[in-house]
Description:
The complex is a heterodimer. Chain A is mostly helical. Helix content of chain A is 73%, strand content 0%. Chain A has 13 helices and no strands. Chain A is globular, with a radius of gyration of 20 Å. Chain B has a two-stranded antiparallel sheet with strand order 1-2. Chain B is mainly alpha-helical. Chain B has helices at 13-37, 42-51, 57-82, 90-107, 116-142, 146-166, 201-218, 220-230, 232-238, 242-269, 280-290, 295-319, 325-340, 342-345; strands at residues 4-7, 346-349. In chain B, α3 (57-82) packs across α11 (280-290), α3 crosses α12 (295-319) and α5 packs antiparallel against α10. Chain B is globular, with a radius of gyration of 22 Å. Chain B starts with a strand and ends in a 21-residue tail after the last strand.
Amino acid sequence: MIGVDTxxxxxVSMIVAATPLIYAGIGELVVEKSGVLNLGVEGMMLVxxxxxxxxxxxxxxxxxxxxxxxxxxxxxxxxxGVLTLTLLANQVATGLALTIFGIGLSSLIGxxxxxxxxxxxxxxxxxxxxxxxxxxPVLFGHDALVYLSVATVAAVGWFLSRTRPGLVLRAIGxxxxxxxxxxxxxxxxxxxxxxxxxxxxxxxxxYLSLAYSPMWAENMSAGRGWIALALVVxxxxxxxxxxxxxxxxxxxxxxxxxxxxxxxxxxxxxxxxLPYLATIVVLVIISRDAARIRLxxxxxxxxxxxxxx
Amino acid sequence: MSPRLEPRGEPSRLLTWLxxxxxxxxxxxxxxxxxxxxxxxxxxALWLFFIxxxxxxxxxxxxxxxxxxxxxxxxxxxxxxxxxxxxIGAEGQLTLGAVAAGGLALAFWGDGGFWLLPLMVIGxxxxxxxxxxxxxxLRTRFNANEILVSLMLTYVATLILSYLVHxxxxxxxxxxxxxxxxxxxxxxxxxxxxxxxxxxxxxxxxAAVAGAWVLIGRTLVGFELKVVGTAPQAARYAGFSxxxxxxxxxxxxxxxxxIAGMAEVSGPIGLLQPQISxxxxxxxxxxxxxxxxxxxxxxxASLLLAxxxxxxxxxxIGMGLPLAATGVFQGMLLFFLLASDILITHRVRLGRRPxxxxxxxxxxxxxxxx
Lengths: 309, 370
């Protein structure tokens, strides 16, 4: 039997592990809804992580670190935007370049910060509420970014389904030629979406280096950017499902720690494979119904748009 | 009167090959700026990065050592990219090839013979093919995105290798190091240049270049790859199967990456250790694009990217820059290449647009199936 304390610990760490995936995933969801596939999430997360960490370590201010991390992610995304939207480069290749560049750049910037200690982002313990057993710590004992991540998903869901600009964004993702003919600014909207995606990836990265494990290490995102990309497919491009998927993956990520803690004799490496294997299994389950993917995926995803000269 | 892009009637062949040159030049300029920003003398840093490593015979052989896996993998990747098949898990296929070949070397430790090396080459190829077959199967059978699956499998492959060298395959006399025992001589690739680390694996790379050249230029399969990639609808009418191309390219790339992994552990490394490759599988993607998806171009591009590894090591030793400078240079190079590729299909015009613009051919949009 699992005690209440263990269950509480599992749920709390699951939510914390899911938060960077939520940020990176919801950003990429908006990008893909606008018809752009940015595979550079991993690179943008790492640059956001190192930028946030560097600012927090030098100024001691998380309030400064978080916007800087978002700007760093957005700046990376704009490089991608210029190449794919203005210079019509292949989105898959450009996204890969962004990841390779981001891994290198973040290591270069972060070299001086390896081993620097940092205080974790403070938790906002709500009095009374956070003292309730189980529910208290799980729902009311987190840092501000955990709550903000849920709010962001809700806001994006509302934006995409209930507002006019959201509808325009989806129209552009589904048929950029028709949207262009009607007079919608295809390129401008896509630039905005790409920048938003970059900012969210940067924020997800910053959550890793400021809260999840408050330190900087080379390549510390360990494939989370790619898992976030898979999450978008898993969610069939729906914000609510993305949130559920992220918590599922957060659970898988921390399950390995608790299994080892429980003294079950499985090699550490086998447990570490779990999130990656789970990603593959989930992709297969979701994608095997080709019609469902075709119905939900933005029809112009990954295609180059060129206005007639 | 701002510059603007105007579509060309036909893609420019000249610029197809000039674009990589422009990209390299732009990378050098951007690199100089980057070094200056980091507070280093740019001229000295660039000299150290690009010239010093290849100023000795030993340096040139090291260039060959690094270019070998890049070239092997990129030749395979290019076949896939031609057909719009995005295998980005070559790093994992390399690792599994190394595991399979290394496993054979360890299994026959003490009683190897002339037959062991050929067996290890086959084992490496099969190991890489098995790892490449998984994304191919999941893509063709279940429609699962091959980019994400092949990438996830890279992490899994690294963990398998890590488990083996920490556990069952660990050198019994190796103290605390997570390494296998040193392979026997019969499991080591002979040197090509005595006194260097350049091994006969380099000949595998040249053979792969020649083979791919024939495949692309002289066979129906090469033509099919091109049609499936550039005109999917025409390919369907012609009865060319995209699924067949997915299988074919994943298996070829898996085999070549597996052989590259075998050559690494059997050549310069000589044992199994947690890290076999400094990201050759990812860098090979850049090699494939820089080489214009053409075997001849890839051969040249693999030498240039090999230099980026040597240069990274040189500035690390000489100026104390992190090894990650290599990744920054590689990423910038691909950025500039993708940017200057616009010049293949467009020309830059200054001034107002003419009254009657020629009909714009839509740029072929490679679909990234997700």
